[in-house]
Structure formats: structure tokens, C-alpha cells
């Protein structure tokens, strides 16, 4: 028998889940919690195999409850059962340790199969949640200078640097002190994620940043 704990602050949801799951011959509802704190306490006393965890609950939300439970009982499987499919909920829930993430509109038979998958050591994630995961894992297409734009003066310094000029020559050309030039170059290196003048010059050429700002 799969021993299940239901954690949801809505009475109607808990009743609906219990009504269906009790018809499953391989499942046993051993308890119900109305908030995350209760879920943690009941987990300690009941040691369920699977927890159906709501995401938004009073006193302690599902993510915090999941973290605490998984830290102490890593073998207990947690299935998030919620109404939220956006990345701000999906990613934290899975990072907290949930092995499953399903929406509350899931078909009853699909829910039962999702629970069985967890017991087989498989993950079960709603398609909408899977999309959020794929977006999270996509490599960023934003270049460093787009994420952290150079100021007009930094652009001027980079343009002069690309021409092979020394700090003194750049200072003279832009009518600033060498100390100011050094500060600008340090900021440029940090923003472009480069280590030295050569890398900065190559980056500037590659991304078309060699023209002065005109300011």
C-alpha cells in the first residue's frame, strides 16, 4: 500500500482527493494537514510514502514545508498539487525537493498514475511546468554588454583602448585624469566579463563597440 498524506488548506480539495484516492486499491490515506507546519509535524509522526502538497498555505507554504521534510526524510516523495504553473512557483518547488509537480485540474486517473510513478522513483511534471524548466535551462542569449550597458564615457574609453592607446593617451584624448581612465577600464572589464585589455578589445570588435559615443 502507498501511504499518502494530503496537505491542503482547502477542505473541499482535501475531501475530493480523499474520495478518489480511497477507491485505489493500492493507496491508503493516512492523514491530512491544513497548512505546511502541520504537514511537517504529521510527516514526523506518520512517515508517509507520498505527500500531496499544496503550494500556498497559511503558517508555512508548501515550498518551506517541502524543504524541511526533504532535509529530514529524503526518501519521502512529495508531489506538488497546485494551481500555479509559472516559473516563480515551479522552479522553487522543484529545487526544494519535490519530485512531482501537477496542477489541480489533473484527471483523477492521471493523478493516481503520477503517485505510482513517484513510488517507482520517476519524476512526474505537468507539461506547463516542464516548459518552465526548459526555459530555466536555456542558455542566456543576452550578451554581457546588453545586460550591463556601458555608460557613454565607458564607451569612449573602450573605443580608445581598442585603438591600442595607453591610459595616459586615453586620458589626454578625453581630457580626464589617468586615475579616471583606470576606474572606467575596471568597470568595463567587470561589465564585459573580460580579464585584460586584449580581451576587451577583441570583445569590442566582435560586438561592434569600437565607435566612440559622441558624448
UniProtKB/TrEMBL annotation:
Domain annotation HTH luxR-type: ranges: 143-208
InterPro entries in the record: CheY-like_superfamily, NreC/VraR/RcsB-like_REC, Sig_transdc_resp-reg_C-effctor, Sig_transdc_resp-reg_receiver, Tscrpt_reg_LuxR_C, WalR-like
Biased composition (Basic and acidic residues): 133-153
UniProt entry tagged with the keyword DNA-binding: yes
Keyword line: DNA-binding, Phosphoprotein, Transcription, Transcription regulation
Region Disordered: start-end pairs: 129-153
Highest taxon listed in the record's lineage: Bacteria
Chain segments annotated as coiled-coil in the UniProt record: none
Domain Response regulatory: 3-119
SMART domains with a match to the protein in the record: HTH_LUXR, REC
Subcellular location(s) of the protein: Cytoplasm
Residues carrying 4-aspartylphosphate: 54
Protein name per the record: Response regulator transcription factor
Amino acid at each position: 500500500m502507498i501511504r499518502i498524506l494530503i496537505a491542503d488548506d482547502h477542505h473541499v480539495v482535501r475531501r475530493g482527493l480523499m474520495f478518489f484516492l480511497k477507491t485505489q486499491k493500492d493507496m491508503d490515506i493516512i492523514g491530512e494537514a491544513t497548512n505546511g507546519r502541520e504537514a511537517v509535524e504529521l510527516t514526523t509522526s506518520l512517515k508517509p510514502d507520498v505527500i500531496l502538497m499544496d503550494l500556498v498555505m497559511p503558517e508555512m507554504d508548501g515550498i518551506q514545508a517541502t524543504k524541511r521534510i526533504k532535509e529530514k526524510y529524503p526518501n519521502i516523495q512529495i508531489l506538488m498539487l497546485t494551481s500555479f504553473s509559472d516559473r516563480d512557483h515551479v522552479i522553487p518547488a522543484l529545487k526544494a525537493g519535490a519530485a512531482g509537480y501537477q496542477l489541480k485540474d489533473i484527471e483523477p486517473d492521471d493523478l493516481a498514475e503520477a503517485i505510482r510513478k513517484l513510488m517507482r522513483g520517476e519524476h512526474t511534471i505537468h507539461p506547463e511546468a516542464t516548459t518552465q524548466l526548459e526555459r530555466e535551462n536555456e542558455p542566456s542569449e543576452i550578451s554581457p554588454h546588453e545586460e550591463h550597458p556601458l555608460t557613454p564615457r565607458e564607451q569612449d574609453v573602450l573605443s580608445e583602448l581598442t585603438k591600442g592607446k595607453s591610459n595616459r593617451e586615453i586620458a589626454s584624448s578625453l581630457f580626464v585624469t589617468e586615475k579616471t581612465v583606470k576606474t572606467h577600464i575596471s568597470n568595463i572589464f567587470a561589465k564585459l566579463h573580460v580579464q585584460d585589455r586584449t580581451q576587451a578589445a577583441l570583445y569590442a570588435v566582435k560586438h561592434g563597440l569600437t565607435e566612440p559615443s559622441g558624448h
